[in-house]
Amino acid sequence: MMLLRREFTKLIHQKRSYVGWIGLLAVPLLVTLALYLNRNNHHHDNGPGGVISLAMHNGLLMPVAAITLLSAFLLPLLASMVGAYQLAGEAETGTIKTWLMHSISRGGVLASKWGIAIIYVIIGLALVFVGGLIGGALAFGLHAPALLSGQTVSISHGLGLSLLAFLYVLAGIICVLSLALLFATMTNSSLTAAIAALVVFIVMNILGAFSYFDFMKPYLFTSHLDAWQNLLSQPISWHPIVIGLITFAIYIVGLMAVAWYLFRRKDILV
Amino acid sequence: MTLTQEHTGGPAATPPDAEPVVLATYGLTKSFGGKLAVDHLDLTVRRGDVFGFLGPNGAGKTTTIRMIVGLIYPTSGYATVIDHQVPRDKKEALKHIGGFVEVPAFYGNMSARLNLRLMGSLNGQVEEQRISEVLDIVGLRERADSKVGDYSHGMKQRLGIANALINKPELVILDEPTSGLDPQGMKDVRELVRELGTGGTTVFLSSHLLHEVEQVCNRAVIINRGKVVIEGPVSDLHPEHSSVKLLTADQGKARDVVAALVGAQNVELDEEYLIVQASDGVDAVIPAREQGLEDFFLGLTQSSDVDTGGAVGVSGGAK
């Protein structure tokens, strides 16, 4: 906890932190604006589908509409960057050796790096949520939302479901972040680690897109990233959500265990 | 006229009433891809020592320090700091160590003060007063609230020393602390190191600058290719002037001249050299060329370096 607090101090002193956050705040606002300007001819739009067209009638669903678009690329990108930067970025500046020359354990350092990267993503997701809600409210107003399955639920119920959806996306994104952190234990270049994590993410997506590789699909965490959409149909089918969360958990534990093993024994030569 | 001297001093014996050992290494060895960087290094540093860790660039100094502070793992052997074994108990050991390896690195977007607060508090409580104190010691008080990213190399180097001192550690490890400093900065740092030693702090000072070690250290070890070449009190490392060889154009005449000098004894002519025994305290009999530790060091390291053409960087040329 003491280490996490210090990582937070470091995080808020880095300009790059704000660049990502501003991006995450801007995207839902931009999406809202685009949908708003396009509101009269949306029937021509065969775009991203259900959730987004729902949001065009109700600003309350704008956060989940934004997350649908973000979880495809920008969010994994930012998670890779922040995960990779935590260790490899400090190797680049040499500060990792200054840091590790103190009476702290490597395991604790790794855990705090993981924790701060998650906090970064949580703050980012909160900005998306708030940005989406504000944009959505201004453009389309906040009403009791209709779900994908047609039923209408109360505003608070709708917000609750959106929040759950965000938490699910967070769990999925922690997989990407853990992957980047693992690569960061193997290289001293944060760009290399971030790109490696993104490459794995994209390869998994591609594998998941071809029916030939269907046998792999259940084992790729990327196949489960969209399972939160089940939250927006009544009755909620929890099965894919639970399977998704279990898959994420296995990935996260596995990746961090390897990262811990490597980092604990790593020779810091920067 | 060529003049060489024979070294007659050897490693000094440990005094019987020695101070407790603060840092020791036992067969410390590190190989990178089969290449030995540090080769069964045994060192003993006692409380209050200002210990010079000398060697040419690439001798294994920084690798040794990295092992002592747990940044890299020895291939074999270990170090002890106070009573804590590294790497096994490095978390405990690091409580007693302050210092830096190579160039001190800090968070550039933060002020010096915040850096010191952040780092210092990793090893225990750090009072604001202590932060100001160490900034004063290294003369950075006025720039304490500027971003470290805007600091010059010399200022970062001094901040590194401040950071090393912040927790009042028993052992201060400084890796070439004067590298890249201007002459005044070098002088300041050396004075500071001397003061630390006087105050009872044990200092482990790595350097490739021999006069630096001569100036500030009481004990030193010279390493080359990861091995100890010689170890002992700095005064002992200095070659003694008890025997001097002379080569002149006219050896016969030189013998007469030298023999007439006060203090010169046993002036003999062997096949090539004129050998002069000087009595105690009159080693300035032949002041033609003072052989310093530098030449002595070059002699030592180059003799084991023949296959590389004796290409050891000694002065200047930091990594």
Main attributes of the structure:
heterodimer, A: 270 residues, mainly alpha, 70% helix, B: 319 residues, alpha/beta, Rossmann fold, six-stranded mixed sheet, 10 helices, 27% strand, disordered N terminus, disordered C terminus
Q: Tell me about the largest β-sheet of chain A.
A: none
Which two chains share the most extensive interface? Answer: A-B, 24 and 30 residues
Distance between the termini of chain B: 36 Å
Strand fraction band of chain A? under 5%
Number of helices of chain A: 10
Oligomeric grouping of the chains: heterodimer
Shape field of chain A = globular
Radius of gyration of chain B: 22 Å
CATH architecture of the domain at 21-234 in chain B: 3-Layer(aba) Sandwich
What order do the helices and strands of chain A follow? HHHHHHHHHH
Helix proportion range of chain B: 25-40%
CATH superfamily of the domain at 21-234 in chain B: P-loop containing nucleotide triphosphate hydrolases
Blueprint (SSEs and pairs):
The complex is a heterodimer of chains A (270) and B (319).
Chain A: H1 2-12, H2 15-37, H3 50-55, H4 62-70, H5 74-93, H6 95-100, H7 106-140, H8 155-186, H9 190-209, H10 238-265
Chain B: E1 2-5, E2 21-32, E3 35-46, E4 50-54, H1 61-68, E5 76-81, E6 84-86, H2 90-93, E7 97-100, H3 112-120, H4 128-137, H5 153-165, E8 171-175, H6 183-198, E9 202-207, H7 210-216, E10 219-224, E11 227-233, H8 234-237, E12 243-247, H9 251-259, E13 264-269, E14 274-278, H10 293-303
Parallel strand pairs in B: 4-9, 4-10, 7-8, 8-9
Antiparallel strand pairs in B: 1-12, 2-3, 2-5, 5-6, 10-11, 12-14, 13-14
